[in-house]
Design goal:
The protein is an all-alpha fold. Helix content is about 80%, strand content about 0%. The chain has 7 helices and no strands.
Length: about 180
């Protein structure tokens, strides 16, 4: 069986499960989507772990972002399948709103991880256990403060962007952006 699009695959599953109520077919399709995303994530992670087996820094980075990439795979799969699924308008609107917030949180989380990795890589140049470590301690302190400041700004921007997706609290998000 060959599928030319996601719509074809969803139609095939819907047809095969036509004896079930519509809501359960939708739930099964969404559950299969999540399971498929988790399997794809697991397989690609295993391939990446083997490809970078001799690079401990890359392996630790892959392990560090495992939850982030898992959530990204699930979100991407749901975003791709959602238009093909027959959801009631209210449920579709709620699901789209939740996925929008999840994408914004993912972008913020990626930014936080990027800042953390950049600081870690920068600080690898300095050795705190050296006899004359004044310069190293100075750089470590400066980078820790800079990392906290950047992290705070990223969190505020992420929160403001997430709040702006809801019309009821859009003014709060705009206020956070303005401040």
């Amino acid at each position: 069986m060959q599928f030319n699009s996601i719509q074809d695959a969803v139609s095939a599953v819907t047809t095969a499960l036509s004896f079930l109520p519509a809501w359960s077919v939708t739930a099964i399709v969404l559950a299969l989507t999540v399971v498929g995303a988790l399997i794809a994530h697991w397989a690609l992670r295993r391939i990446a772990m083997r490809a970078f087996a001799r690079r401990p820094f890359v392996l630790s980075l892959i392990e560090r972002v495992r939850t982030l990439t898992r959530l990204a795979f699930i979100t991407l799969a749901l975003v791709l399948v959602l238009p093909a699924v027959d959801l009631p308008p209210q449920a579709a609107a709620w699901t789209v709103a939740v996925l929008r917030v999840v994408v914004i949180v993912l972008v913020g989380w990626i930014a936080l991880v990027a800042v953390d990795v950049a600081v870690t890589v920068y600080l690898l140049r300095f050795q705190l256990d050296a006899p004359d470590n004044l310069l190293a301690r100075k750089h470590v302190t400066q980078m820790r403060v800079l990392k906290r400041v950047i992290s705070t700004v990223v969190i505020l921007i992420t929160a403001a962007a997430a709040l702006m997706t809801f019309s009821e609290v859009r003014q709060v998000g705009v206020s956070i952006f303005a401040s």
